[in-house]
Amino acid sequence: MAINADNDGRTRIREFVQENELQQRMLIRGDGVGFQQYHLKRLPTVYFIDRKGNVVGRDAGYQSYEQLEKSLQKALK
Amino acid sequence: MTFERLKTHLSTVLLASLLLSLLQPTSLPAQAGSDEDDPNPSAKAVWKVERSRGEEVLEFEVTIFQIPAPGGNRWVWRATASNGTYPGGFPIGSMLIRGSSKPRPELFDPLSPAVMEMLLSVHGAGSEGAGLGWAAGTPVGLRRQISVERIEAVDDDGQLILTGQLAGGQIQIRGGARALRLSAFKETLYLNAGGSLKRAEWAATLLRGDEENATSEERSLRVERLEAGLIEEEESQQVEAAYEFLAPVVRVLRKGMSLAAVEMAEKMFQKGQKDHKKGPLAEVVDEVAYLLKSSKKIASQPLDPDVRAKKMMGKPAPDFSLEGLDGKMVNLSDFKGKTLMVAFWGYS
């Protein structure tokens, strides 16, 4: 899922989703969750959560597709 | 009252009286500035505010106190959204109004820009006369003077209705790659027979790039005065004292979230909070107490988010509940048993 952590308006988010043809579940107004619960420093930041619900990885800043896949494989183990 | 007369009225009436018109329930004195009239009375007004940008709508009420301050007066306000939170993150704001100079924000306004802009432009109308309009476009978040053509009408109750429309077609607000044009602008002001503002509405449509029809953004701001009146000296003094007490605490909290800063604010707060537990700003005192508590919790953590994040590894992911783009609420716990990639993103 993707969470907008920048308090952008729905209209802007919708534009972004359409322009990039995003398929993820998009959540809005995530700045509180992002900065207080998930300790964001840079955007985007991707967290990986395993089947048990534990945090197993975090990629901060822009990442290559390969890097994200590597982290995801780790989380799937 | 005709518009021409209102214009003269506004330009001759002192600034303070215009503020009064924002606050006072009854009409302005016919001749402002006579000896008996206090130009800076202590007063209180409650306004209902509805602001929208695209599909985002924010509704709240703002209570403004006008109290004496060195060389003029001070507006102290608090705002509460319908869900009980305060828009902007800080429970109290203020600005200092001295003579005809520009009002100076003191405690940065917690109202997130639109209402501050509305207050300032209503205020600015007094010093500039009604020429460019009360709004001049700023209440819809445009930092630009907008010329409006104005039509006046008087309804059966003697209420003056001023309707302003964008003079001559579109206006380019911003050029370049992210061009922005204003295609429609409308302001409607409702003033009672005495020239006191009762209700105001602003709406603007913005076009991005070279689009022909507005698909992207509509902005509006509606304000309505729910109540207003002079307050007794005792209440005014209570507001003043509570403000003097709260302002430095809030100022420190705003400046930094370092543990030392929060502890300093806490120290100042504990000294006098009992004295202000009751009275007109009692709720603000409670809110500042809560703000201090939560700020301390955050400030006690390591500063670097990356360091804090390391502590999360291998531990249960904190649950949350957020609204989806489709309006439905989504909980992290809804996805139990699945491997998840959670991406936080933003435009900037």
Q: Could you please describe the fold and organization of this structure?
A:
The complex is a heterodimer of chains A (77) and B (348). Chain A has 77 residues and is an alpha+beta fold. Chain A has two domains: 1-38, no CATH class; 41-77, no CATH class. Chain A is 39% helix and 22% strand. Chain A has helices at 10-20, 31-37, 65-76, and strands at 2-4, 26-28, 45-49, 55-60. In chain A, strands 1-2 form a two-stranded parallel ribbon. In chain A, 29% of the residues are buried. The model of chain A has no long low-confidence stretch (mean pLDDT 86). Mean pLDDT of chain B is 76; it is low at 1-21, 24-36 and 126-133. Chain B folds into two domains: 3-230, no CATH class; 233-299, no CATH class. In chain B, helix 4 packs antiparallel against helix 5. Chain B is built from seven helices and 14 strands. In chain B, 27% of the residues lie in helices and 32% in strands. By secondary structure, chain B is of the alpha+beta class. In chain B, the strands form two sheets. In chain B, strands 1, 2, 3, 4, 5, 6, 7, 8, 9, 10 and 11 form an eleven-stranded antiparallel beta sheet that branches. The chains are: A alpha+beta (77), B alpha+beta (348). Chains A and B meet through strand 1, helix 1, strand 2, helix 2 and strand 3 of A and helix 7, strand 12 and strand 14 of B. Strand 3 of chain A pairs antiparallel with strand 14 of chain B.
Search tags:
heterodimer, A: 77 residues, alpha+beta, 2 domains, two-stranded parallel ribbon, two-stranded antiparallel sheet, 4 strands, globular, B: 348 residues, eleven-stranded antiparallel sheet, 7 helices, 14 strands, 27% helix, 32% strand
Tally the helices of chain B: what do you get?
7
Oligomer: heterodimer
Task: Specify which chain pair forms the largest interface.
Answer: A-B, 52 and 41 residues
General shape of chain A: globular
Count of distinct structural domains of chain B: 2
* SSE string of chain A: EHEHEEH
